[in-house]
Amino acid sequence: MIQSAIQHHEVTQRTTCRHCGHPLQRSLVDLGAQPPCEAILPESAFYEPESIYPLHAKVCEHCWLVQLDADVSPEKIYTEYAYYSSYSDSWLAHMQAYAESICSKLRLTERNQVTEIASNDGYLLQYFVKLGIPCYGIDPAANVAEAARGRGIETVVSFFTAEVADRVAKERGRSDLIIANNVFGHIPDINDFVQGLKRILQDSGTITIEIPHVMRLMERNQFDTIYHEHYCYHSLIADTRIFESQGLKLVSVEELPTHGGSIRMHVAHREDSRDPDESVERLLSMERSQGLDTIVPYQAFGERVRQTKRSLLRFLIDAKEAGKRIVGYGAPGKGNTLLNYCGIREDFIDFVVDRNPYKHGKFLPGSRIPIKEVDAVFDARPDYLLILPWNISEEIMRQMEAVRAWGCQFVLPIPEVKPIP
Ligand SMILES: [Zn+2]
After folding, report:
1. Residue 166: CA atoms inside 13 Å, Cβ hemisphere, count?
2. Which structural domain, as residue segments, surrounds residue 69?
């Protein structure tokens, strides 16, 4: 391939809102130029250049959709990773419970059909297969689709667009339930994606969409979940508009604890006999009471993020001046957003440890902090263990309890930097 041709399409600037086309001018938070947060470096690439791209979230003052002002091409973001869903037992139990409850709620039988967008290796659809409900998935990664087929789950290998939806609807008919879990934020062209959902939906069918809630992201200061592959950050205020524009309506919404605070939206055709239930109005009023249909909370969030950076650096500088040693726990994408935004390298953090053997001996993107196996903490005996995947901090503190033996303290970087005695 010709290098210049690739570079030409690496990144596309967005000057207008992805949904409504209004000029996109208001900054939410500018996290600087960063490498893709999952692009961990092998030792062989240590002296190679790294690609960095602007990471700047803005908010549309017309429809209040929070979004990045640039699209980095997916080939640049997903370079070497095969995305397999988590296999943890608790996660799978959560999936099974969801499959069982939604089948009973919608009274799905062997005469119905279920479709999952971004179905991965079939981690969720396997439970529909067990319940005897016909289903298939759509996923762009050929290797994970192969893994799904191995479990008896039919998978269409493709990105999901309105055009693909037309083709699939012709071949397989429309579906009674369409599931889009944690994919809605990864869509650069949101209107086209939602139009696609509508085209494969049966007249009285339901779409369920799970997504981190931008209200919680701002409230809990989770700015490190802003990544290049998350193009949009969703609120009901913005999403009800998006659904309406494509002939759909939101009929119900649930709040979930996953990913620091998520929502599961239930969506139907505009003509569907169901009216929105009280959950929709309740959450919409909560968003309005926080001012999410005004510029105020978005501006305050940006200032709070800059404040968090100064506090974290102050803590680290004080610790180093006092001769303390700091090690990081975990090498998740969000950790890299945080470290690169704050400019934290080996000058503050000696190394990070991670349970995934694939990452050992490699380096974090941008900061180039070395990644070691978990046991390295017990050899180094640091004074502080900075927990980067804060969403599972309880679990990590339980697993690493033994570090307290030499007086090591856990530190959480957000919502505000805090050592845990
Ligand atoms: Zn807009």
Report:
1. 4
2. 3-77
